[in-house]
Write the structure tokens for this entry.
Amino acid sequence: MESKAGEFSKRAIAVEVTSNMGSARDIMLEYNISRVIVVANGKPVGMVTEKAIGSYLLKNIANPLDKIPISKAMRSPIITVTVDTSIDACAKMMIENKISSLVVIDNAQINILTKSDLVKLYAEDHKREHLVKDFMTKNVITISPSHSLRWALILMIKNRISRLVVTREKDIVGILTFRDLMPITNFVEGNTAATELLDLSSIGYIILARDVMKKPMMLNVNDDLADAAQVMHSKRISGIPAVDLNSHLSGIITKTDLVRALIVNK
């Protein structure tokens, strides 16, 4: 029996269209999520992601976030599906539209289906079908430990990615995610003195990748792709570097790669 969106979606966290960007950011940090649905009169009208907020901050620094309307970073219109839409169709929509989630309409309730939900599905239903090397992204964008956070943010936004592998020579020394950068907005939000002294360029001179990066988990290119999906689901991470037999970086497996694998299996 074909899996449906309603089986894997969950209730969405929503904010009113009259909300500000600061409240959206705070909700994402509180619930450890990367997006919120924007509603008007109980109906979904848009979506705001942590990357959209980061992109806005990269270009606009003068105003505190709690004074900026959420509409400035909102993506609209959004793509919606019903609870009866097949998972295969949902996966294809995400890949074709380069998005990470779909709004699922369930009568009066607003649900959301994310790539993370599809990663869990792959981990449970597709064991021993593929190896990490079959679907990993081989063109990995990396930075040095001494690169600035501003450069890291620019790379993530420019390349539409949520993480950067931090390398020294051929060795992986850390990983930096968009989520890691979210609390950095505390330096510039709602503080007049900070706004006068700091913009994202000057923050970059103060805080480097090595100050924020985390120790990464790593996979072997010959690991079972379903095992990789299970680790990503259980640890709530979006990408894991893959290494060869010499422990050198060969690629990275991401949630997008796993969604692609779901489509191939159909």
Notes: The radius of gyration is 19 Å. The first strand starts at residue 10 and ends at 11.
